[in-house]
Amino acid sequence: MTDLEVILASHAAGEPRGDLPAGDQPQLAQWAGLCRAMREAAPRPSQERRQALQARLFARRSAPWLWAAPFAAAACLVLALALWSVWQPQTPPQAPLAAVNTPRQRPAPTTNHTVTPTPPESQPETLPGWLDEQWRLVFATRAELPEASPPLGGPRAGGGGTSGSASLLAPVLAQAPFRPLAWPGSPAGFALAGASVKRADTTGLGFDLVRLEYRRGEAILLVLQAADSDQAARTLAPPSHNNGAALLVRRDGVTALLASNARTSAQLEALAETLRPMAR
Amino acid sequence: MEPPAETAPAVAGPDFDALVHRVEGRLIGYLRFRLGSGDDAEDLFQETMLAAHRHWHEVRNLENPEAWVFRVAHNLAVNHGKRRAVQRRATLRFAAPGMASGPTHLEQAETGARVQAALDLLPPDEREAVCLKIWAGCTWVEIARLMGVSEDKAARLFARGLKTIAGPLADLAPGGSP
Prior knowledge:
A: about 280 residues; alpha+beta; six-stranded antiparallel sheet; two-stranded antiparallel sheet; about 40% helix; B: about 180 residues; mainly alpha; Arc Repressor Mutant, subunit A; 8 helices; globular
C-alpha cells in the first residue's frame, strides 16, 4: 500500500488526505464510483423499520407501569365494593307500588284516622291492573255537584233511599270476610249503584275486597274496603293521579279507600267520619 | 438516492425522531455490511436506537449525537461478531460434512450480495474501516477513535480494503471492467 493509494482512497471516500497528482484521475474516478455504488447498495430507510422502533420504544415506556395494573384493578374493585356497601342500605327498595304509600302511622283499631297521601312526585304512576281500572272509572270524567247539596249522612239525607241500599248491601254482608263500613243511608248527593265482594283471585291484589259504588249522574263515589292490613293499606293508598280526591281510612278493622270525581279529599274526610260498621 | 422519509408516530419526541431520521440510512447500511446479515442489522439497529433512547437525556446534549450512536453501533457489532464467531465454531464442530455454514441472503439485492461477498474477503480491521467510512460516513478521526488506531492507520486500513474489493467489484464502478 503506497501513500498515493491512501491519498486516492481518501479522495474517493470524500475526505481527502493529501494532494492528488493529476495523472491518477482515472483510478480516482473508478474508486469514487465504487464507493458511490456501494453506498447505494445499502438498505433503504423504511417506514416499517421506524414503526418497529416506535413500537419497541412504546413497549419500553409502557412496561415499567404494567406491574401496577393488577394492583390498580384490585384497588378499583375494593373501592367499588366499599362504595356499594356504604350506599346499599340507603337505596330505596325496589318494592311494588303499594309499598311507597305505606301509612305513616298505624292507627288504633277504634280510632278514626285519615291518611294523607304522600307527595305526588314520590309516587309511582303504575297500579295493579284491577285497581287501575277502578281509578279510570272514577277519574275518567270530572263531575260537579250542586252547591246546594243536602247535608251529609243520615238516613233521610241521602238521595238513594234505604230500601234499595239494603237490598244491594245484603249479599255483601253475607259474603264479606270482615264487617264492612257503610253509611246508614247513602252519602249526600249519591245513591248506591252497586255493591259486591271481589275475591283476591279476581282482582289480583292479594286480598278480598268489598266494592261499593255510589253515583249521581256523572258523579261517582267509590269505596273499596279490605280487612285492615299493611298490605291492603299499601295497595289501596291513593296514588298521585287522584287529583286530591281520594282518601284512605283505617278503622274498626277495615282499610277503606274513598275515591270520587266530585269530592275533594277534605270532603271525603268528612264523609268518612260518618261511616259505620255494618250490622250483620 | 434515499427515498423521502415518511413520518413515523412520535413516541420519544421530535428531537429523537429527527436523530433516527438522520442516521437511519447510514446506520442500517453500516450494520448490514459490517455484520453480513440483513436481519442482524435490523436487530442491532433497534438495539442501537433503544440505547440512544435510554440515554437520551445525555445524548441530546452531546455536540455530536450521531457519533455517539455509531460508537454504540460499533460496540454492538463487535460483540455481535464475537458471539457469531462462537456460534460458528460450535456449528462447524457439530455440523455434518457439507452442511452450509453461512446464512443465505436471498432477500438482498444482487449488488448488495456481491458487495457483501467482496467484504468477506477483507480482514476484520480493513472491513471495519471500509464500513465505517462508506456507510456510516465517519470521519478519519471518528474511525480512528472507534478502532483505537491513529488517523493515518485508519486511512491506510480503508485504502487497503478498498483496493482489495475494487477488483471483484470493478464492474460496479463507472469505467470499470465487467
